[in-house]
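Example (one chain per record):
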Amino acid sequence: MAIFSSASVSGQSADYPFKSGEFALYGVYYNWHFIWIQSGDVEFTADTISSKQQSNWHLKAVGKTFKAYDLLYSVRDTFETFSNYKTFQPDYSRRVINHAKDHSVHQYGFDYKTGKISVKIKQGKAPLFQTSLPVQDNTFDLLATAYNFRKFDFNKLFIGEKVPYRMLTDRQIDDLYFRYLGKENVKTRNGKTFRCHKVSVYLLQGDFFPQGEYMKVWFTDDKNHLPVQVETEILVGKVKAVLLDTKSLKYPHTSQIK
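Predicted structure:
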């Protein structure tokens, strides 16, 4: 982490539909007895920084529950990724997870010269887990994958088409896919309506998610391809993230109907 400076870098990537300074705020809702209750929020930021006289992406997502819900189940999560500005390949990734009394830190270093990914995972009081994985083409961590989805030209996909992607999960690299489901209008909680492309994302079995295409994502039908809504089943119900606010989008929000 120390090798990265906080200096801003001018210029924007022509290959991705976001720019340095982009900010997106989402409200997080939990489905309780058929009622959607906002229990927290998550902020996504994309910035550029300088490292060793070259530009890098710094992606960050911070999620938390509201204080009123902390007694029931507190969440304080931070995801960070540093990626090459031109290729978008990750150089370093870090996740700090705090769910109630469960705490874990996941760190991944990508060394493309040696072809290895160093993995360090510390979960609660368990011993530090360390290993290395071989670098495979087009491997992205969780946060970079979320941003990388936005590069796809959804208008060129047919309904039902599967789009493969490769993602670094906790301790392994998996070949996964999302399925294109067509266009759909989405009305957000602040009354705005957007034309969107809808996809379902295949998830692996985890601590919170069942295995299958249980995550649905709606991307704006404009050049930004910004997620407007994400809804997924979890082992104890459903969770939804809905777009509340944005700043510094790369392109006009032309998908907004009203």
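Caption: Helices lie at 67-73, 142-148.
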